[in-house]
Amino acid sequence: MTIRYWGITDVGAVRSQNQDSYYLQPAGDGLVTALVCDGMGGARAGNVASSLAVETASAHLESLTAQSLAAAPGEALTQSASMANDAIFCKAALEPECLGMGTTMVSAVAFPDGRITVLNIGDSRAYRIGAEGIEKVTRDHSVVEDLVHRGEITPEEARLHPQKNLITRCLGSESEARTDLYELQLGSGEFLLLCSDGLSNVLTDQELLYEVIHGGEPETCCQRMLDIALSRGAPDNVTAVLIQLV
């Protein structure tokens, strides 16, 4: 089997600057690596944080051979996130205008046999999508996700909660990154979607499922999802990466 992949990012309809960044590249031997980051911390610093995270993490991933990446994908993703965290944390300490900056990250290594390793920190998400439905792979590191996990609010209530944008972990806020890893298996024809909250806050899971599976060709899916977000006012930057096993 082989992997097909597409990505898109957009400033949205309200923000003056795109503080999202993404990376999507083949890594040899049929592997594909992907990163989505959503920066925060002021007009300039959020962009700096997400760009620096993608630049640092992708450089580490590119420094690995396909064989070493395949042998330990979780270690590769964890190390790349740790290096990005160090870069952001140090820059924020040295440059006053970058004080307090940080970024989310969701990243993945995809194998042509359908194995996927995913890392996340913050509230950028990974979804597994197929004909049988949609599954949120990652757990947000956010105030409302903790409320949902404790049973204090429902997932539907979380979408409208006034604190839905407050995250509890990000790259750059602490000296060490606290990331989570996930392993999953895609079947032929199934998809992995990585996205910033600028997409997942505007489209419901069922709408994401519909666009990926029934909305049209996979090649235009990212653009279709972006167009829907823009039609609804896109209050935040929007980034989506779509990976398909065929």
Distance between the termini: 6 Å
Q: Write down the overall mean pLDDT.
A: 95
Gyration radius, rounded: 17 Å
The CATH class is identified as: Alpha Beta
Q: In the residues, how many domains can be counted? A: 1
**What is the 3D form?**
globular
Contiguous helical run count: 8
Overall strand count: 11
Oligomer: single chain
CATH topology: Phosphatase 2c, domain 1
CATH architecture: 4-Layer Sandwich
Structural class: alpha+beta
Order of helices and strands: EEEHHHEEEEEHHEEHHHE
Strand residue content: 25-35%
Q: Low-confidence spans: pLDDT under 50, at least 5 residues?
A: none
Biggest sheet details? 6 strands, antiparallel
What is the helix fraction of residues, given as a range?
A: 25-40%
CATH superfamily label: PPM-type phosphatase domain
